[in-house]
Amino acid sequence: MFHIALHFLVPGIVTGVFFHKRWKHAYLAMVATMLVDLDHLIANPIYDPDRCSIGFHPLHHPWLVLLYIALCFLPRTRYIGIGLSIHMCLDAIDCVVTNGVWVN
Ligand SMILES: [Zn+2]
Predict the structure, then answer these.
(1) Structural domain harbouring 58
(2) Which segments of the chain does DSSP mark as H helices, in order?
(3) How far is the CA of 24 from the centre of ligand 1 (A)?
(4) From ligand 1's centre to the CA of 90, what distance in Å?
(5) What is the distance in A from the centroid of ligand 1 to the CA of 71?
(6) Against a cut of 0.90, is the pTM above it?
(7) What is the pLDDT of residues 57-79, one digit of tens each?
(8) 77: closest CA among 32, 40, 38?
(9) In principle, which of 39, 42, 46, 81 could form an S-S bond with 59, CB 3.0–4.6 Å?
């Protein structure tokens, strides 16, 4: 539950510190990147608290993480890229905490 709260809290902190002039747009775009977790719907079981998402779910593949980081450098996709990068960082940290590995 704390992990899910961090997916809302960390983008809020980043928005407040770096994008406070456009905080609504930035925060909504970053939180919308939670939709990347829709790839959990094709897993069985859909939710497993002991499973490491990174490297297991298709949209959490390490190659895509490189794309998400690249999106941070393009003005039109910056908020999405930052949101996705934060998401992957939080999921990777969760992997370390629950499984002791960064990638599945
Ligand atoms: Zn995720």
Answers:
(1) 2-99
(2) 2-18, 23-32, 62-71, 78-99
(3) 22
(4) 8
(5) 17
(6) yes
(7) 999 999 999 999 999 999 999 99
(8) 32
(9) 39
